[in-house]
Design goal:
alpha/beta; 7-stranded mixed sheet; Rossmann fold; 46% helix; 4-stranded antiparallel sheet; signal; P-loop_NTPase; binds magnesium ion; ATP binding; ATP hydrolysis activity; AAA+ ATPase domain-containing protein; binds adenosine-5'-triphosphate
Amino acid sequence: LLHTIFPPELRFALLKLFNRVFNCFSSYCYFDITEIDGVNTNELYNAVQLYLSSSASITSGTRLSLTRALNSSAFTFGLSNNDRLVDEFRGATAFWEHCVMQRQSQSLSWRFLPEEKRGFTLRIKKKHKSLILDSYLNHIMSRAEEIRRRNQDRLLYTNSRGGSIDSRGHHPWESVPFKHPSTFDTLAMDPVKKAEIMADLGEFATGQSFYQKTGRAWKRGYLLYGPPGTGKSSMIAAMSNFLGYDVYDLELSEVSSNSELRKLLMKTSSKSIIVIEDIDCSINLANRRKKSMGIGRFESGFNNADVLGDGDGGGAGGGNSTITLSGLLNFTDGLWSCCGSERIFVFTTNHIDKLDPALLRSGRMDMHIFMSYCSVAALEILLTNYLGLEMSELDDELVSEIEDLIDKAEMTPADVSEVLIKNRRKKGRAVADLLDALRGRVEKRKGEGFKEKNNGDVEEQEKRALEMPVGDCDSDHVLEKFGKKDESNQVEEFNLMTS
Ligand SMILES: Nc1ncnc2c1ncn2[C@@H]1O[C@H](COP(=O)(O)OP(=O)(O)OP(=O)(O)O)[C@@H](O)[C@H]1O
Ligand SMILES: [Mg+2]
């Protein structure tokens, strides 16, 4: 009607007037959320699309759009062109409409724009505007982030090209989809310790307000230590699957300086696990401690304050690397470590005694987790997972023999799972093989001069136990086992175990 009756100049003025009159009398207000805001992509548009997708799938709408994003294993529902949806938030109703229009000719545009102009229109009652708008939009953003993370596959990043952006502009981190099947259910370890770790991770992930209130950076450090094949790497994968965090596997030997290390840190995203595996091999961090400790284990010159110092002097870098201990400490604990939030640092080592205590003190490595040789509790989990067999189904005699041998044999969960996997279809055979393997290991260890070999380990554990910050997850365990006994008692204990 407007087109036929009025000339173009008048048409525009009339439309504006009509809108104004309409707005005065309408009890609703309208918000347009366009896909492209000027030249940038509008983050809110994508968030609304994801947010509405969670309710779109359950509404009775007959036509929905279906998408699957790159690196995602989930399908996303969406509103089709010009479709509508009603949402409720804190008692207020929000009406959403997905508007799609053909874009005018884009011959003058310097940037490619899609042919269609897409946007959402939000309609809410004017009286609700101040009440809900801000909180509703924040709610949409956080829900969308959650859905995005849930839908997206985990990513595993590595810095195989070194630590800085190269001449071709490549990002220092390369990523691949991370689909490690290890979870806390499949991890064989003491159930109490496992529950403790899971609770700690859960509290960390939901502790934003706590960290803010106490003025702490929202990050946490875990040190996993123990012999090879006891599940340190599997634990990292389980942590990632439990929290839904990406993993950054930092290859320290590829990083040539402290500033590169810092740049790498700045390029990591929040909600991630930053891993340095075998930290004792990656960098020579032991120098300072060796010097300060002297030669004797319990020499009177043992200076605790020195050992637990803050490490600013730093050990010199090992090999060709110029990364220093202080660079690494700054990485985990300095001002730069909080350029982002919700980060977990995990260091693994087979030799905790080689690490500088400055790296181990609370606040840097908040939890020290000792991954031990296979225990009875861990074996129960492996038997269930690999053979579908409960310990209670076995003969009492068999169980007591296994219980008797398992600690003496010092088999890692990796060793045990190797034995079980070979005969996973024949349960009886698998258990018999396991028993043979346990007996064989105990015999072999006796033959190898078990006593001398293990005294070394005892010394190391004892030394560590004395250095551990009080209250650590493992220090009690180590102290209980070794720390409160003198040397002759330890020898006796191991003699007893072998005989
Ligand atoms: N605690 C465990 N629970 C379940 N499986 C385990 C456990 N420990 C080891 N395994 C099995 O052994 C394999 C090797 O374990 P993993 O790589 O986690 O050991 P690690 O402690 O990281 O060893 P390394 O110190 O050599 O890096 C895993 O693929 C897993 O199948
Ligand atoms: Mg490993």
